Structure formats: structure tokens, C-alpha cells
């Protein structure tokens, strides 16, 4: 049983670091609530134990102090809905949510002191204080006074050594520093892929730039049997091998890096799969004229914006024979309808492989957006909520938010 599951929160005030950094439209309406939904089971478990919950989060990037558009009060109505739904499932009463217009200070402390079992307090945006991102010890200590036990359930910020995500841990004894269920699942899923993967293990790496993915590719060379490379970054590899890529995206200063990766993979017996053909366009636009061409023979004036039909078949064959799958990054400009086919085909192959028994982990903002858009999120083994955090985890870095709980 997990440490969180076995902990009894009865009469305890749980100070939870959540990741409620959700996108809002110009009417302050939430356009994607997946991060909030992911935190609900942790909150409900504590309430059901007879504990109370104090939620702290950041929202957006406020500059130099409070800004109305970044106030967490905009999340209150939807948080109330989500917690009531979660509470109804567990056959409990309506959850009473309070809001403090600060994350430290008299109102926050007074409201937290008066909080009764079964109640929730949402604190105002942590980043209204510059001390949060600076990892200020005094600020962390002030936050720590609000609760009896600290729960880190914000994987999306686990790679930041901020006051609320890491520094605060020193003010709680080891037995009162916990991961929430979301963090436990994130860490367990990442660990399974990195250190306990069944072979064949295929890593699907996409996106625009080789420079963004060098470290993750190099770390995966020691673990994966196959690495599929798609998206704009594939053309730097094509160019490195002497291919003609037209006007496709290319990081010329990374050509030697691409060659080094290919050579290292060959020496380590890891198969690198580049797209054999591409869907090409005469401009970077949704209404561009399109055609197809071998990825290493794209005419001048044209650019590759998606993988082609042969590459789709090529990649699917690799994916369908795998036992472990990590997917980070799309195969093309999937935001444009004409260039989303490759990403959708790969997503479907990941789903099919999962149904055949493979373990699949999807992470990184664009990959997550893709599986959500195509309706596949519940058909893969795990969808990570942490873009940058997951990337750094697979680069082999120690994440401060994880180390703070484990130390």
C-alpha cells in the first residue's frame, strides 16, 4: 500500500501543493481542467478520512505582485463542482470551500485555524510573491504554518525548487511529507518506463527541435531498443545524413549532434527510425498546397510538415511489436488539419499496442493535447500531467519536488 493511502488524515490539516495552472479564456473560464480533475481523488481521500484541506497553487506568470487575471478565485466555481462530484461518488455531503485572498498573512492563518474537518481552503496565487519562485526559506516557513502535514501532488512543478514545491519540506518531519495519489502515479509510471521496462521498448520522440530533446534521446539510448524520431526535428537528422530537405526546419548547428546520436545508437544496438517519407507543403499554413515526397528528397521551396503514408506504416510496425512505449512529441503540425494524420495514426498504434498488453506513457504538452483531441486519453496506460517535469525526469535529472519528499 502507498504511504499516502495508509496515512490517516483524521483531524489533520493537509497543506497540499496542487498544480492548478490551468488555461483561462478572456472570460476567465477554464478551457482545460485536466490538472484540476487529477487532484480530486487526493483531496477527497483526505476529507473522507476526517481531515481538512488547504490548497496552494500558482496560476500563470504574474509580474511583480497580484494581478486580477491570475487570481485563483476564478477557479472556485469549477473546483466546487469537481469536489461535489467526487464527494457524491464517495457518498459524502457537499464540500464547503473557503477562499483566502492571500497565501500567507492574517486572513490565511485565521481561516486555516478555523477550518473544520471536511472543509477546503483555497489560497491565493503563490506567485503573487516573488519569494515563491526564488525558493525563499522564510516564505516557505510561513506557508508551512498553515498545515499539519504537507502533501505534494503537483508533478507539473516537481522540476522547480520553489518554496512550496521543495523548500517547504524541511519544516515537516519525514512522516508528514507525502506524495498525493497523482504524484505517486506519475512517479510510478515514469519509473516503470525508465527502470523496469519490458523489451522491446520504443520511445517516440517528436517536436520541432533536436536541441530540445538531445538529453532525453541520449538518456533513452541506454534503455530503449527503438527510437522513433518525427516532427520537425527529423529533418536535422535527414540533413545530417546528406538528404535534401528543401525548406524544412533544420538546426544546422545541431547537425553534428544528430550524427553523434546516430553513431552512438548504432554502437549500442539501438534502432533509430526516421520517417521514410513526408507530407510536404509550399508554405507553413493551413491552406498550403500539399504533396508527398521522400523525406531525404524534398524539393526546394517545399517543407515537411507531417510524416507520409510509408512512414506511418513503418512507425506503426515498430510500435505494434513493442512492450513498453514512451511518447513525447507529435509527428507533425497536428494543430493544422492537413498535417495531423501522422500524429493520429501513431496515437492509434499506441492505443492498439496498449490493448495488446504494452505499457504506454504519454507525456509532454503536445502529445497530451493530441491524445485528448483524438479521444485516446483513456485508451493508453498513463497520460502525464507534467510536461517540463516529465521531460527532465527522462533526461535523468533529479526533480526537487520528488527529492523533497523522499529525502
Which class do the helix and strand fractions yield? alpha/beta
User: pLDDT under 50 segments (min length 5)?
Assistant: none
Number of strands: 17
| Secondary structure: helix percent | 25-40%
Q: Radius of gyration over alpha carbons?
A: 23 Å
Shape: elongated
Instruction: State mean pLDDT (0 to 100 scale).
Output: 93
Strand content: 15-25%
Q: How is the main sheet built? A: 6 strands, parallel
> What strand line-up does the widest sheet have?
3-4-2-1-5-6
Distance, first to last CA: 20 Å
- Number of continuous helical runs: 15
Characteristics:
alpha/beta; six-stranded parallel sheet; elongated; 15 helices; about 400 residues
In short:
With 407 residues, the chain is of the alpha/beta class.
Which helices and strands occur, and which strands form pairs?
Elements: H1 3-6, E1 13-17, H2 34-48, E2 52-56, H3 76-89, E3 96-100, H4 106-114, E4 119-123, H5 130-134, H6 137-144, E5 149-152, E6 177-179, H7 181-195, E7 201-205, H8 210-220, E8 226-229, H9 234-240, E9 244-245, H10 255-268, E10 271-273, E11 277-281, E12 290-294, E13 297-298, E14 303-307, H11 309-320, E15 324-328, H12 341-355, E16 359-362, H13 365-373, E17 382-383, H14 387-394, H15 400-406
Parallel strand pairs: 1-2, 1-5, 2-4, 3-4, 5-6, 7-8, 7-15, 8-10, 9-13, 15-16, 16-17
Antiparallel strand pairs: 11-12, 11-14
Helix pairs in contact: 2-3, 9-10, 11-12
Could you characterize what this model shows?
It contains 15 helices and 17 strands. The strands form four sheets. A six-stranded parallel β-sheet has the order 3-4-2-1-5-6, with helices on both faces. The protein is α/β, with parallel strands linked by helices and 407 residues long. It is 38% helix and 17% strand. The mean pLDDT is 93.
Amino acid at each position: 500500500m502507498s504511504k499516502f493511502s495508509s496515512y490517516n488524515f483524521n483531524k489533520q490539516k493537509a497543506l497540499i501543493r496542487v498544480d492548478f495552472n490551468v488555461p483561462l479564456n478572456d472570460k476567465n473560464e477554464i478551457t482545460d481542467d485536466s490538472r484540476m480533475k487529477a487532484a480530486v481523488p487526493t483531496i477527497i481521500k483526505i476529507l473522507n478520512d476526517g481531515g481538512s484541506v488547504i490548497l496552494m497553487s500558482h496560476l500563470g506568470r504574474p509580474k511583480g505582485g497580484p494581478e486580477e487575471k491570475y487570481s485563483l478565485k476564478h477557479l472556485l466555481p469549477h473546483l466546487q463542482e469537481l469536489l461535489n462530484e467526487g464527494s457524491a461518488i464517495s457518498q459524502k455531503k457537499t464540500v464547503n470551500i473557503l477562499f483566502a485572498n492571500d497565501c500567507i498573512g492574517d486572513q490565511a492563518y485565521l481561516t486555516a485555524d478555523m477550518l473544520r474537518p471536511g472543509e477546503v481552503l483555497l489560497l491565493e496565487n503563490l506567485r503573487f510573491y516573488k519569494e515563491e519562485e526564488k525558493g525563499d526559506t522564510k516564505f516557505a516557513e510561513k506557508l508551512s504554518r498553515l498545515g499539519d502535514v504537507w502533501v505534494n501532488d503537483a508533478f507539473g512543478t516537481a522540476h522547480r525548487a520553489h518554496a512550496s514545491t521543495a523548500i517547504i519540506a524541511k519544516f515537516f518531519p519525514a512522516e508528514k511529507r507525502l506524495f498525493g495519489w497523482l504524484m505517486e502515479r506519475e512517479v510510478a509510471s515514469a519509473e516503470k518506463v525508465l527502470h523496469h521496462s519490458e523489451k522491446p521498448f520504443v520511445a517516440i520522440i517528436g517536436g520541432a527541435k533536436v536541441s530540445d530533446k538531445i538529453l532525453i534521446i541520449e538518456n533513452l539510448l541506454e534503455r530503449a531498443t527503438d527510437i522513433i524520431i518525427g516532427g520537425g526535428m527529423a529533418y536535422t537528422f535527414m540533413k545530417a545524413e546528406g538528404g535534401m530537405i528543401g525548406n524544412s526546419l533544420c538546426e544546422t548547428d545541431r547537425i553534428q549532434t544528430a550524427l553523434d546520436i546516430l553513431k552512438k545508437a548504432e554502437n549500442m544496438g539501438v534502432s533509430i527510425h526516421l520517417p521514410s517519407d513526408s507530407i510536404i507543403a509550399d508554405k507553413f499554413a493551413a491552406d498550403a498546397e500539399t504533396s508527398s515526397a521522400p523525406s531525404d528528397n524534398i524539393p526546394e521551396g517545399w517543407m515537411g510538415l507531417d510524416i507520409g503514408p510509408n512512414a506511418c506504416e513503418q512507425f506503426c510496425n515498430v510500435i505494434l511489436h513493442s512492450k513498453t512505449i514512451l511518447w513525447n512529441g507529435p509527428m507533425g503540425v497536428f494543430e493544422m488539419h492537413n498535417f495531423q494524420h501522422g500524429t493520429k495514426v501513431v496515437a492509434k498504434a499506441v492505443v492498439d499496442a496498449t490493448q495488446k498488453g504494452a505499457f504506454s506513457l504519454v507525456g509532454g504538452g503536445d502529445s497530451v493535447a493530441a491524445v485528448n483531441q483524438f479521444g485516446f486519453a483513456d485508451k493508453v496506460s498513463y497520460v502525464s500531467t507534467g510536461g517540463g517535469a516529465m521531460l527532465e525526469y527522462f533526461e535523468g535529472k533529479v526533480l526537487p519536488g520528488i527529492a523533497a519528499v523522499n529525502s
